[in-house]
Amino acid sequence: xxxxxxxxxxxxxxxxxxxxxxxxxxxxxxxxxxxxxxxxxxxxxxxxxxxxxxxxxxxxxxxxxxxxxxxxxxxxxxxxxxxxxxxxxxxxxxxxxxxxxxxxxxxxxxxxxxxxxxxxxxxxxxxxxxxxxxxxxxxxxxxxxxxxxxxxxxxxxxxxxxxxxxxxxxxxxxxxxxxxxxxxxxxxxxxxxxxxxxxxxxxxxxxxxxxxxxxxxxxxxxxxxxxxxxxxxxxxxxxxxxxxxxxxxxxxxxxxxxxxxxxxxxxxxxxxxxxxxxxxxxxxxxxxxxxxxxxxxxxxxxxxxxxxxxxxxxxxxxxxxxxxxxxxxxxxxxxxxxxxxxxxxxxxxxxx
Length: 352
Fold this sequence. Notes:
The protein has 352 residues and is an alpha/beta fold. The chain has nine helices and 26 strands. The longest helix has 21 residues, at 227-247.
């Protein structure tokens, strides 16, 4: 079956109070949009297209540099209108998965569950159960638990507002049906926009099967609309990464004071003190010790290496049982043989 993934990234993000496009703000060292792109690639889609709009002068070249197709939504008229801009890219696809550039922590596993919850002729919706569903579209079902419609918060009556099952916005939709259905969505609502969730009521009326998957972790489907929410997701992401590493044999003196901004391959019996930052791709072998306030960037630390406090290791390789620091800086191209020592305030570049 052919799959096209459409990532919506055209919003202005006025609540970020920034000249930078919202999807280009960084979480764990990379743009929100890049998190979604990386997850989308794990699903091996036939086509991947990003809908750009506000901040397109920054977003478009960033995406195209990765050989990913872009289309423009010049006027922001709602999610259905945004998806329609990519119609030429998905019209012949069996299924279209719609993702959002400001929902960075959605997992490939959850999306696989969504894609697999029905056949390619059914409409599939990712939902979540929230204690406080304020601001989200509500999932309206009949007494047999069949989905009837999605009602946006601003258009909901008091009874509908009591529903705590919400629409995450993420859907997997039959491609050919979607291409036709988009032209029948109207903007008769409080926002005057073309809502993608209106497809649900349309599918019900046409007898198209609707399936849903409930995302158990609400942080996976949390969007970023302001810097407070961005900080909350950053904290959640870092805690999740730290927990996984601790379960694999790494000791963090305080897992709340660690930053992982990239890939970290770690062995066992590693000790990491507070305020350490890992950037890029790093490999750390067994029995390594890293002191407080260190920065490790795109480097390899071999077994038993000791990085003392306030040191920076960048694009370097530290041999087994080496000692570095405190207050040392290994610049790009540095390679230390086993048991070498680099003392206080020493800086090395392009040296073996």
